[in-house]
Amino acid sequence: MLILKYVNHKKYLTGLYNLINEIPFTLLTNIHPENRGDVALYIKGEIIFVDRSEFHFKEYFITIPDLKKLAYSYHYQNHDKKLIFRYDNAAHYREIETYPYHKHVHNAVLNSGNMEIKAVIDEIIRILQQRF
Predict the structure, then answer these.
(1) Rounded to whole angstroms, how far apart are CA atoms 83 and 38?
(2) Which of 15, 30, 42, 79 sits CB 3.0–4.6 Å from 52 for a disulfide?
(3) Residue 106 has pLDDT above 80, yes or no
(4) Share of the chain residues as helix, strand and coil, in percent rounded to the nearest 5
(5) Gap between the Cα atoms of 102 and 96, Å rounded
């Protein structure tokens, strides 16, 4: 799989599309990039997998002077819409050692690093490979 680098928003989007096109077990993919002037980029998307599990993601970048991710949410749920896990950097859970980065798993909130979409997709693929 490709490694996404923050070069500029156009190259990032091209890399994201290429990454998503390489994902196995997919039924449907939707990516909705939204340029907010020349200063910001908002991307949201979803991937539906063959087991009907769903990956919903949001990324928010500033683009000036360089592309920098400010916020993200990577949410993976089963076919019944129940959370499997979600990584995000929302500014809550200050008691978490890796604040603001954290991972929701069922009813727990765990430490997490600053996540990249490729690492999350790789985690989902490992889960799906165990099922198929």
Answers:
(1) 35
(2) 79
(3) yes
(4) 20, 40, 40
(5) 7
Structure tokens at 36: 């907010």
Task: Say how far residue 79 (Cα) sits from the centre of its chain.
Answer: 18
Q: How far apart are the first and last CA of the chain?
A: 19
* Long-range contacts at 18-26 (CB < 8 A, ≥ 24 apart): 19/117, 19/118, 19/121, 20/45, 20/47, 20/121, 23/47, 23/121, 23/125, 24/125, 24/128, 25/49, 25/50, 25/51, 25/125, 25/128, 25/132, 26/50
Peptide bond between residue 100 and the one before it cis (omega within 30 degrees of 0) = yes
The model carries a pTM of 0.92
Q: Which amino acid is at 21?
A: N
Q: What confidence category does residue 115 fall into, taking pLDDT thresholds of 50, 70 and 90?
A: very high
b/e code 14-28 from CB counts within 10 Å (16+ = b):
ebbeebbeebebeee
- Alpha carbons 82 and 122: distance in angstroms, whole number: 20
Buried b (16+ CB within 10 A) or exposed e, 50-84: eeebbbbbebbbebeeebebeebbbbbbeeeeeeb
